[in-house]
Amino acid sequence: MTKLQNTLIAAAGIAALAASAQAACEPEKVAEKYPELAGKPVRVATTPLYAPYSYTDMAKDKMVGSDIEVSEKALECVGLTYEYTKGVWSSLLPTILNGQTDVMVANLYYTPERAEKADFIIYMKAGSAMLVPKGNPKGVQSMDDLCGLKTNGVSGSYSLPILQEQSAKCVANGEKPITITVATETDAALRGLDSGRADFLLDNVGAAAVRIAEDPERYEIAFSATREIFVGNAVLDGNDALLQAYEEGMKEIAANGTLEDIFVKYGLDPNLIVPIEIKR
């Protein structure tokens, strides 16, 4: 081995050690850094029905999913514990606003309207997928093909206003509107697709991939897209200590590779990860 090779290897080792030192979790310092949070569990509002982001592992009777693991690893990194309050997706954010829980962890999209009452810690972009029955019987290839079709939109989700906007565009172009039935949970919306009451479902790309993996003869993706919509956890406006704890923990697990590992584990594209950021 040449002297230059030895030098390069040594330099790489030093850089790796430096990166590791910079990405070190410090759970033992929780009382010093976050005295108002130490010693009591963070109350996490989530849904057990939203794979691969948050769902119940029936064999182990515990919450799992990419959002769940990101939250757990971030909190553990700064020395905080947690407990779960489960409900349907549309009921979760109100529990933050009325003080029943501390944080919503369930693939929540940032919007300026939501940010009027809640603060966000952002870590990924949204990806959407147009889920259709196997064989794509309506020939859906783009948003413009949705005019005159039937679908279900989940209350409070990013997809509902997109569908409403597209329906208005259909009418403006002299075509039939999209018939949209509002559901409270994605699984309820999916049942509409299964029963034939809906022709398509504007789904989250990760969730759509799970559905196809579980039943490849029932569904397919007509098309997908990455949207300039950001996803993160939400805490009540003014809960700065918890927001900062999440920011510290998430930045550490992003730096040490844990965040990317979680995405890969649950079949999500690591390219959806964005720099950790507080958005108010």
Automatic annotation (TrEMBL):
<dbReference type="Pfam" id="PF00497">
    <property type="entry name" value="SBP_bac_3"/>
</dbReference>
<feature type="domain" description="Solute-binding protein family 3/N-terminal">
    <location>
        <begin position="41"/>
        <end position="270"/>
    </location>
</feature>
<feature type="signal peptide">
    <location>
        <begin position="1"/>
        <end position="23"/>
    </location>
</feature>
<keyword id="KW-0732">Signal</keyword>
<protein>
    <submittedName>
        <fullName>Amino acid ABC transporter substrate-binding protein</fullName>
    </submittedName>
</protein>
<keyword id="KW-0614">Plasmid</keyword>
<dbReference type="InterPro" id="IPR001638">
    <property type="entry name" value="Solute-binding_3/MltF_N"/>
</dbReference>
